[in-house]
Specification:
It is a single chain. The chain is mostly helical. It contains nine helices and no strands. The chain has helices spanning 3-16, 19-33, 36-39, 49-60, 67-79, 89-107, 110-128, 139-152, 155-164. Helix 4 (49-60) runs antiparallel to helix 5 (67-79). The longest helix has 19 residues, at 89-107. The chain is globular, with a radius of gyration of 17 Å.
């Protein structure tokens, strides 16, 4: 499966999922994208102390923080970015995930969850450098794709199992 096919399939899954499915997917994915190890690369000269604190707080409380509180934490983070570019990739991943999650909480737009899925795929790609022509060739990328499918279309695995018999 090439990258454009992967994107199209993820979009199809997000659009077709149940409300409970997209919520579960969103919660699991945003939690994965704000995991503490992603923040370890943050250099002191990239973020102010207030921004680092806001980022840590938002990440630690991502599933319990309100959209308004998350909005305030993100404002503190954005105000405290000290570099023009070259923000640590893990920190950038976490900030982007928080912004998409905030928008989802505010507007309940599934497009924000599609963006979280793509960020999650990109996070894996950053670790393993997937082949654009066969994006699922690495075990890590195949596992991430299956995680996405399992959460957004729980019956898909059962259907595949039935078809293979």
């Amino acid at each position: 499966m090439d990258y454009s096919e992967l994107e199209a399939d993820v979009l199809r899954l997000v659009v077709g999922a149940t409300e409970a499915g997209v919520r579960a997917f969103g919660e699991e994915t945003v939690t994965r994208l704000v995991r503490p190890e992603l923040l370890r690369g943050a250099a002191e000269d990239e973020l102010t102390e207030a921004a680092r604190t806001a980022l840590a707080t938002a990440c630690a409380n991502v599933l319990t923080i309100s959209a308004a509180e998350l909005h305030d934490e993100l404002a503190t983070i954005y105000d405290g970015i000290l570099v023009d570019d070259d923000l640590d990739p893990g920190v950038l991943t976490a900030i982007t995930a928080l912004a998409h999650w905030k928008s989802y909480l505010e507007q309940n737009r599934r497009g924000e969850l599609y963006e979280l899925a793509i960020r999650s795929i990109e996070d894996i790609d950053h670790e393993v450098s997937a082949d654009l022509d066969d994006f699922l060739a690495t075990p890590e990328m195949a596992a991430e794709y299956e995680r996405i499918r399992r959460l957004l279309d729980p019956g898909a695995g059962q259907e595949r199992g039935t078809q293979q018999r």
